Amino acid sequence: MSTETPVAVSIVVPVRNEAGNITPLITEIAAALDGLWPYEIIYVNDGSTDDTAQRLSEEMARRPNLRVLRHEKSSGQSAAVRSGIRAAHGGMVATLDGDGQNNPAFLPELIAALEKGGARVGLVAGQRVGRKDTGFKKLQSRIANKIRNAVLKDGTRDTGCGLKAVRRDVFLMMPYFDGLHRFLPALVRREGYDIAYIDVIDRPRHSGVSNYGFFDRLWIGIMDLAGVWWLIRRKKPTPVAIEVT
Predict the structure, then answer these.
(1) Stated pTM of the model
(2) Which residue in 88, 101, 56, 75 sits closest to 206, CA to CA?
(3) At the N or C end, where does the chain have fewer CB atoms within 10 A?
(4) Is residue 215 very low, low, confident or very high in pLDDT (cuts 50, 70, 90)?
(5) How buried is 80 (Cβ within 10 angstroms: 0-12 exposed, 13-18 middle, 19+ buried)?
(6) Pairing relation of β-strands 164-167 and 121-129?
(7) pLDDT score, position 2
(8) Which residues pair with 12 in a beta bridge?
């Protein structure tokens, strides 16, 4: 991609200790997006201690549109996603998990839906079908999603899917906290934007083990839910500001 071509889409991938998944996933992202939009790929290496940094360095030598950010120590998935989006050059940003369970083949559909939605749609969220997690993890997610939806009424059945497309300016409006990525639909609605949904097919990870849990700690998840509920309750309509000349 020419450096003179404006970037339309930034793909943000948070990773921690995913050395074996780096090359296969980047290859799939490129195959899905080449020829559609001018794009960049931003990997956020969240304090990895394996060969993730080396694999990313090798890929950067081959791919001029690959950028890499590094956290000195692991700060969590929300922090990694935020770092990537803050650094993004594209007005549209798509995210996916770095473990390979999110299929990049769905990226064009997510991005096209965001583009088509215009100023009205702030987020396009992937909704997983045919999940490949363990029975216990699927049960845990199902219960957590039902509780979240009952409290926040965000109309989203699956906030844990890493496949999302969001307008960068909308994301940067969000109040940041650890765990933000799990509550994006409710917070985007809080700002007055619509959300579109795309069914995506989950698949097993290529290699390695899970590094980011759905709710790493139960009590943290409950406190986050209460905090987001409070933010929604305290939101007032955003006034229209007109410059006086």
Answers:
(1) 0.81
(2) 101
(3) C
(4) very low
(5) buried
(6) antiparallel
(7) 45
(8) 42, 95
